[in-house]
Amino acid sequence: MDEFWLAMVTAGSLIWQLDGDLWEIIGLSLRVSLTATGIAAFLALPLGALIALGRFPGRRVLIVLFNALMGLPPVVVGLVVYLMLSRSGPFGVFNLLFTPTAMVIAQVILVLPIIVSLSREILETLWQEYHEALRSLGASPGQSLFALLWDGRAMLVTALLAGFGRAVAEVGAVMIVGGNIDHVTRVMTTSITLEASKGNLALALGLGMVLLLLSLSINIAVYGFRYIGGERRLA
Amino acid sequence: MKLRFIRCLLIAVLVLAGRQVAAAAPFIILASTTSTQNSGLFDHILPKFKAASGVDVRVVAVGTGAALRLARNGDADVLLVHHQPSEEAFVAAGYGVARHAVMFNDFVIIGPEADPAGVAKVKDPAAALRRIAEQGAAFVSRGDDSGTHKRELSLWAKANVDVAVHSGTWYRETGSGMGATLNTAAAMNAYTLSDRGTWLSFQNRQGLKIVLQGDQNLRNQYGVILVSPQRHGHVKFRLGQQFIDWLISGPGKTAIGGHRINGQQLFHPN
After folding, report:
1. Do B16 and A100 count as a contact with CB atoms less than 8 A apart?
2. What are residue B108's DSSP bridge partners?
3. Can you tell me the distance from the alpha carbon of B158 to that of B127, in angstroms, rounded to the nearest whole number?
4. Which of B17, B81, B144, B198 has CB 3.0 to 4.6 Å from B178, enough for a Cys bridge?
5. What number of C-beta contacts closer than 8 Å exist between A and B?
6. What is the pLDDT of residue A86?
7. Domains in chain B, number
8. 8 Å CB contact of A35 and B183
9. Domains plus CATH for chain A?
């Protein structure tokens, strides 16, 4: 149990001092995971809407496929992206291995299925609820989609947060494609792994608590944003 | 519609990549082992090399087997590992230019204070391992194709013990780095083989101590290799060679020898 108290104290002093190195690591974690979530959302929301509202052959297969891909092991994604970006791989010439960009690519792959599946589920439910009304109002497909997206925005933000949570917490993929290089690709989770392997359990746990606080403050910010926006679905 | 998304995605990726390139000083990628990183060696010597040369060394620390594979794929410029036969094979196959001996320390057998297998009573590491096997005392292996793992396996072979058949009983393979393996050994109060550097810097020892050390068979030699620019045209061979020349010269040796933990020197330059 002593380790836990020590970790609390360590976390407290880490936050209190907040030295340049820790800032850098927190900043990179945020930059990589927010960029990945952003790009993934940009691709996944239209894709989720297409699967939710569209009727085309293979639609059910896509639904099951994206649901299954939510369970992709990060290490496997890391390995595949490594093989793609390796100098001996097909995209080696871009020289992206061991850069934050490589980490973003891996996390986009991890986050995409989560946002596709959750947004598809949300939009499908709303569509069942509203499509009669929308049709009677004579809304075009574009207008209908916009109305659904707007009405479901609170739940869609939760889908994005789930994706961000996956990105910022995973270590398997960023460790392989980023390489945990000090001052270049070291993020919160790879630091925690490194400190744990040095036997600095208190420091590792302390960093874990800082990561949790980071995640908490982002969620508080989003919640507050929705509250100020007067979102009625807020429960 | 779709094309526009793809175009935006590409632009986003390129902007990120562009920022990366613009921010970077000249650098090389060094594929190395967890033992050198966990012991804090790089934090000690790399700032000195940076001051002397202006070159950043970006360390990717993995097991020796994985480091060799990275270098073979051309994903590193310089290789610093500790398994001489693999290093020589790497150069012989044309992947590396030449191997230089850099530094050495030694492996130590770590075990519980009580030493239930009586390892401390013998001097020879192979005999010590045979005692552990005969007693069926818990032993934690790296199991990750690292330099330390390869050495451990060669010691078991010398002891005439086939550990593969005992895997999962008293012989436990973690498949992870030295630090993680020491954490496991500490939790199980088990024996393990470690390099001295990682052990000295390891914080979570609990009831473990060194039970055997100082035998010739436990010498741990590190070698450095420049990845061949003939094999991989993009290798930064000038900067890589500059780093190697510095490592095996006076200032590099002084830096390596000057890395101490609690007054103990971790690596001895060749």
Report:
1. yes
2. B194
3. 9
4. B198
5. 88
6. 94
7. 2
8. no
9. 28-223 (1.10.3720.10)
Q: Given an 8 Å threshold on Cβ–Cβ distance, is A39 in contact with B12?
A: yes
| Spatial contact of A85 and A91, defined as CB atoms under 8 Å apart | yes
Q: What is the pLDDT of residue A131?
A: 85
Query: Residue B186: which residues within 8 A CB-CB, separation 6 or more?
Result: A199, B204, B205, B206, B207, B208
Q: Is the pLDDT of residue A1 over 70?
A: no
Print burial letters for A184-193: b (CB count within 10 Å at least 16), e (below 16): bbbbbbbbbb
In this prediction, residue A146 has a pLDDT band, given cuts at 50, 70 and 90, of confident
pLDDT in tens, A61-88: 999 999 999 999 999 999 999 999 999 9
pLDDT in the model for residue B23: 53
Instruction: Give the minimum alpha-carbon distance from A15 to chain B in angstroms, rounded to a whole number.
Output: 22
Cβ atoms of B222 and B267 closer than 8 Å: yes
Residue in A86, A101, A111, A116 to test binding to B, most B beta-carbons within 10 Å: A101
The domain in which residue B249 lies consists of 2-105+221-269
For A101, which of B16, B177, B232 is closest by C-beta distance?
B16
Asked if B75 lies within 8 A of A97 by C-beta distance, the reply is yes
Mean pLDDT of A190-202: 87
What does the mean pLDDT of chain B come to?
89
Please tell me which residue of chain B has the smallest CA distance to A179.
Answer: B60
State the ipTM, two decimals: 0.80
Chain A contact set for B202 (CB, 8 A): 198-199
Q: What is the pTM of this model?
A: 0.84
Contact A98/B at CB under 8 A: yes
Are B5 and A104 in contact (CB < 8 Å)?
Answer: no
One domain, residues B171 and B187: yes
Characterize the bridge pairing of strands B27-33 and B78-81.
parallel
